[in-house]
Amino acid sequence: MNTQASNSRLQLDEHEARWFAIYTRYKREKLIRKRLAQKGVTTYLPVQQFVRHYTRKVKVVDLPLISCYLFVKITKGEYISVLETPDVLHFVRNANEMMAIPEAEIEVMRRVVGEQSDIEVNKSTFQYGDEVEIIGGRLTGIKGTLIENHTNKNLLIELNQIGYTLQLQVDSSLLRRVSSAKKTAALATSTRIRERSA
After folding, report:
1. 18 burial via Cβ count (<10 Å: 0-12, 13-18, 19+)
2. 15: domain range?
3. CB 3.0–4.6 Å: which of 107, 131, 138, 167 could bond 178 by disulfide?
4. SS3 sequence, the chain?
5. Are both 134 and 109 inside the same structural domain?
6. What residues contact 97, with CB distance under 8 A and at least 6 apart?
7. Using an 8 Å Cβ cutoff, are 102 and 110 in contact?
8. How many other CB atoms are there within 10 angstroms of residue 177's CB atom?
């Protein structure tokens, strides 16, 4: 596939609305979401619920999954309108280029924040570095790397376009090994040897 043609499909388009990330002032994500909604701009703010214990009460608060990030689905014509919104600092760029975020990565975040996945696990045949896939629950089909193999099963999911890594705790009974750590390491070594030979 032509790289230039592929990249052009990931940038701002005149007619097709695509997802982009904007960087906001601290603790202004919800306010900006409201302002953009008033302009008719489609937004997505992934949030997680946390319980806060105070002296006289317990309060449940929603906090952004990624601080100071808000996602907008826009066409080229809406770019300036978003940028001129108060408390929006700039669009998140990759190597100084605005690159659209694949719908699949937005979907991963939607599923992650909607899933109760902090389950404690005691047994596993998996090893650190294994490439695994979730095979049960709302997160079915999501793949990642196992980064812990003790009591808690920590799964690392890298979102390439956003430039962030999400860490989940997933019951080992809901995991399937895609590739072992040893096989992945051997493949990486083989690739490095071929590159040096070339």
Report:
1. buried
2. 3-101
3. 131
4. CCHHHHHHCCCCCCCCCEEEEEEECCCCHHHHHHHHHHCCCEEECCEEEEEEECCCCEEEEEEECCCCEEEEEECHHHHHHHHCCCCEEEECCECCECCCECHHHHHHHHHHHCCCCCCCCCCCCCCCCCEEEECCCCCCCCEEEECCCCCCCEEEEEECCCCEEEEEECCHHHEEEEECHHHHHHHHHHHHHHHHHC
5. yes
6. 7, 11
7. no
8. 15
CB 86 within 8 A of CB 35: yes
pLDDT band at 120 (very low <50, low <70, confident <90, very high): very low
pLDDT digits (tens, 9 = 90+) for 129-170: 788 888 777 788 888 888 765 544 567 777 777 877 887 877
Higher per-residue pLDDT: 115 or 24: 24
Does position 94 have pLDDT exceeding 70, yes or no?
yes
- Say yes or no: 84 and 111 in one domain: no
**CATH number, position 67:** 3.30.70.940
Say how far apart CA 123 and CA 150 lie, in whole Å.
8
Question: Do 27 and 63 share a domain, yes or no?
Answer: yes
pLDDT digits (tens, 9 = 90+) for 27-62: 999 999 999 999 999 999 988 877 777 788 888 788
